[in-house]
Amino acid sequence: MTMEQTGEFQGQIAFHLTGAPGGHLEPVDAPVRPALLAPYRDLAALRYDYPVVLVEDSTDDACVCSLTALVDDLLRDSAPRGTEGERVRRAVLRAEREIRRLLAAGARGTLSDLWARAAPHLAEEVDHLKVDGVLADCDHELPRRVIDHAWRSVQRQKAWRFHADVDRLVQALSDVLRAAFIHSEPGRRPESLEAAFGSLHRDQFDFEMMSRLLGRSAPRDELPADRRERIEWALEVLRRQRFFDPPHGAELAQSAAPPFEYRFSSCADAIEAFRERLPNVVEFVKAMSIAELEAEGRYVSSQHDAFFQSFDENSLSRDDLARFPDYLVSVHGDESGAVIDLLSSGLPVKVLVETEELLAPEHFGVHLRSTQLASTVIGLMDVFAFQATSSSLYQLRERLLAGLRYTGPTLLSVFSGTAAPSSDLPPYLLSAAALEGRAFPAFTYDPTAGPDLASRFSVDENPQPELDWPLAPLEYADASLQRVVEEVPFTLVDFAACDRRYARHFARISREHWSDETVPVDEWLALHPAEAETRVPHVLVVDETDRLERLIVDARLMHAARRCRELWHGLQELGLAHLRVEPAPVDEAVGESVAEEPEAEVVVQAAADDPWIETPRCSTCNECTGINDRMFAYNDNKQAYIKDPDAGSFRELVEAAESCQVAVIHPGRPRNPHEPGLEDLIERAKAFQ
Amino acid sequence: MTPLLSQCLLHMGEDHHSLEDYEGGVPRWCNGCGDNAILAAVQRLCRGEDLSLEHTVFVSGIGCSSRFPHYMGTYGFHGIHGRAFPIAEGIKMARPDLNVFVNTGDGDCCSIGAAHWIHAVRYNMNLTVLLHDNFVYGLTKKQASPTSPKGLRSNTTPRGSYLDPLNPLSVTLGVQSASFVAQAVDWIPQVLYDIIAAAHRHRGFSFVRVIQRCPEFMPGMLDPWLQDPSKTLLLTHENGLQLAPELSRIYTNHREHDPLDIDAARRLACSDDEIPVGILYCNPEVPCYEELRGAGQARPADRIRASLEAELDKFTVWPAGVERAAA
To answer: How confident is the model at residue A361, as a pLDDT?
Structure first.
């Protein structure tokens, strides 16, 4: 190294340690982006997961569809091979691109609306799109919109089940009352009998006479007063429920109170609403339970009255609560304490925590707090934790829906990637960078997914989860315009480079001063501390003209990167990603010795002199029991055994053996040596010994 | 998972049943008849699954086997010839919560009821079907049935039957939406029980052909298989039939068969000499008709009325100047 080079390197070291640029180093004052994000300048020209269609009235996993996937389906169905198909294909893909541009320009609307604006000449094609709904691009509103939509889809499924149960019970209880009325004296009055008939043959009957005949023995009311009161009370409670909207086709009665609201913007409001409604929930569950028993005719006053008298909120199980709508609470990351309190209550709440800021420039020490929130609630054991960035919400929609369907509390922690006003990247790229750089890793903790932490916790949703940092090939032309391809990691430092607020943590090295003394961030982090002191970390970025540059990184940001990597290691270990081992191979010697063991003898053969039956093989054909049902009998499985060998003759034993078609009766030796014809019988019995 | 309170209360009052609870009248089948073995296996299944008596119904057509519902202590419907399937389907549509079994014979199912049989397979409703196949019309004192062996001399075929027998397994496996097809024999009671239990647990149309003896009119017909266990091919699989060790020793002719492999199932169904016993095909993914149609949903009168009004409104001629929505 020459004196000049030594001086340059000293300047780099100085910047790394102090953050003060000097010498040949230049401050980063123009926007840059990580080199790996260079190809993604114009998102509208790319085909990727967004925008998504929030499918109307959906109740299944397809409540959120990607525009790209829908267009692919459309092309598969309506663009035949050949020239004409190619023309349609190009026109449809142009329409898709135009929709993206419209959305990027701030347009809003449903798929069919925007399709009509983007491609009025393709109006027919839109009919082939199988779904419709509002289009949502990956912007700052996306997490709230997608999760609200998915939540409503799940609640719609719940409402369907809820109404099916309530309708069934209302119908069953109404039938009980109706039957009692028909059997009663008022039910057999002429006007009641006449009303029960259709109009066609009504004139053919004398309802007065019919009433006199039928009414003679009719009781005043066949239902005991307490049962009638109980059924009518349960019916009334079931009918005036306020938990779900009335089912499709039914109208809300004018006198009925409006349904409860289940969406809240603060944890305290949600808890208060839950407590206020708890008496209604208790009353409703009690009414449903009574209705179930009454519908089955299994209500026993002596057994159930006392139970229902002491019925209160402590009697509710989690599955009882899961019948009702879940509370959806949307808060921002600064309500962590209240969120943990709410989640630890075990209530059926779905809490959306939106995070807009990950690396507060002035507080590196407390950064990544939202990551820690989701990790923290895992300690509550029965909370479903879902963490994702808005860019990955579509990919992870099934896990999101699983969280929304979970019967207990759920935390949905999402980084929306929008609060960095000084970033030039669109929200999609910024949130994707947070995921790639491990700044906001995606993970799921599903308490129902298995018996141990390894099966419940998953970090598989992250890119290359087995590595510290995901690697991707970077292709560029060097100074002599030769093609170069190298594997480049995407780290937290790359994520920070997206935001101008962190520019002071970087310094540009002009190309003529590039040297081997600077090393990529991931390599620098892997160095021994003593060696790291002799190197300076750098990151590859591109400027606005896509010119490749090296920025050296100061120690403060590298400290944050190191911490980020440690947190990532923690998540990997939590999911036992590193510890998953293949089952140990079976020791062949042991296997062989097991195989050589003789099988246990199951059929215990009685002494050869006693008669016996291979009972498990008896096919219940009644032959032997037909011969002598005191000697032969059936066991609990209705298979024959010898109940009493002395209850019949040897002849009957031999005849039973001969008539048994599966030959499972063995007569043994004669018990009475004086029985006539023994010689012949013994000869015949030989075939069955 | 915490159970619903109402379910707890319902289970609290439930009685556990013994085999005798499922017994109805005294069977009037001949001694040695395979129907007895099927009856015993089904009663064991009901006890094993603790099926509620009032939530279980056996439906049959006409024939020896169709007397089955009389001998069960549950609900039953002794129907008319060949019509067990539509009756059972109607019951299932109206009450999908019931355990519905169908007992039908080779004449009842494969002759007069063949059209219903084919469509019942296609509808794939959650029914457990036991085809009691004794190769003959026994109740009418020996008439040839569709499954009678070629050359059988009977009251209706005095010169011997002219046609090869119909194969109920290959027919069922050829119908779209077949979801469970198995074959059992009445003389291996444990396997018979296991197969019927698997059929009952399958969600869909479970078709079990039970080859059974008719000692009165077809004596000796099945003796070669009774006397030589190696002629019975037991189909085993981790998702199918698993044999107890004592049975493995007696029936040494086993084959590993994946019940999801329909091509192999069709080849096995056409075996001539060996009788394949086990689950030939089982696909739990085939949708059930009653679920597709939302059977069992309560349809309150006010909701039906509202739906009808909405439909009829589509054809209403509104007076000029009256907005449709406002009317």
So the answer is: 61
B24 touches chain A (CB under 8 A): no
B226 touches chain A (CB under 8 A): yes
Top-level class of domain B21-313: alpha beta
Task: Name, in order, each residue with C-beta under 8 angstroms of A167's C-beta and a sequence gap of 6 or more.
Answer: A247, B297, B298, B299, B300, B303
Contact residues, chain B, for A616 at CB < 8 Å:
189-190, 246
Partner-chain contact A171 B298, CB within 8 Å = yes
Q: Give the integer Cα–Cα distance in Å for B301 and B307.
A: 10
* Total number of domains constituting chain A: 4
A602 to B244: CB separation less than 8 angstroms, yes or no: yes
Of B18, B40, B298, the CB nearest to A168: B298
Given A97, A119, A137, the domain boundary residue is: A137
- What single-letter DSSP state applies at residue B24? -
> Do residues A299 and A165 both lie within one domain?
yes
Do A99 and A209 lie in one domain? The reply is: no
Q: Is the CB of B10 less than 8 angstroms away from the CB of A298?
A: yes
**pTM of the predicted protein model:** 0.72
Q: Choose from A317, A635, A638 for mutation: most chain B CBs within 10 A.
A: A638
Which residues form the domain of A195? Answer: 145-319
Residue among B183, B213, B191, B187 nearest B276 (CA): B183
A449 and A509 housed in the same domain:
yes
Q: Which residue is closest to B46 within chain A, CA to CA?
A: A637
CA distance B36 to B29: 7
Any idea what DSSP says for residue B74? S
Which residue in B42, B187, B311 has the most chain A C-beta atoms within 10 A of its own C-beta, making it the best mutation to test that interface?
A: B187
As a whole number of Å, the CA-based R_g of chain A is: 39
Query: How many residues are recorded in chain B?
Result: 327
- The per-residue pLDDT for range B231-266, each reduced to its tens digit, is 999 999 999 999 988 888 889 999 999 999 999 999
Mean pLDDT split into 10-residue runs, chain A, 689 residues: 67 81 77 88 85 84 89 82 80 89 89 86 71 88 93 92 90 90 87 83 86 78 88 93 78 70 92 93 94 90 89 87 93 79 88 82 54 77 91 93 93 79 80 91 91 86 91 88 90 88 86 83 89 87 88 89 89 65 45 42 53 90 90 92 92 92 89 88 88
Q: Are residues A267 and A165 in the same domain?
A: yes
Cβ B206 vs Cβ B200: under 8 Å: yes
Greatest mean pLDDT range, A511-525, A625-639, B169-183, B213-227? B169-183
Q: Domain check: are A92 and A110 in the same one?
A: yes
> Is residue B136 very low, low, confident or very high in pLDDT (cuts 50, 70, 90)?
very high
**Tell me, what's the pLDDT at A576?**
57
Q: What is the ipTM of this complex?
A: 0.82
Structure-block tokens of residue B65: 């086997």
Instruction: Domain ranges for chain B, please list them.
Output: 21-313
Interface of B with A in 250-279 (CB under 8 A): 250
Indicate yes or no: CB of A620 within 8 angstroms of CB of B187: no
Q: What is the pLDDT of residue B306?
A: 82
Residue carrying the six token digits 């501390």: A529
Q: Which residues of B touch A237 (CB under 8 A)?
A: none
By CA distance, what is B297's nearest residue in A?
A164
Alpha-helical segments (H) within A487-614: 492-497, 521-526, 529-532, 555-574, 588-596
**Last-in-domain residue among A267, A290, A319:** A319
Question: Are residues A452 and A546 located together in one domain of the fold?
Answer: yes
Interface membership of B295 toward A (CB under 8 Å): no
Residue that has been written with the tokens 């009052």 in this structure: B13
Are A197 and A306 members of one domain? yes
Assess if residue A193 is contained within a domain.
yes
Q: Residues of A with CB below 8 A from B1's CB?
A: 319
Q: Which residue among B4, B18, B37 places its CB closest to the CB of A319?
A: B4
| Contact across the interface for A616 and B190, Cβ inside 8 Å | yes
Inter-chain CB proximity B303 and A249 less than 8 Å: yes
Check pLDDT > 50 for residue B171: yes
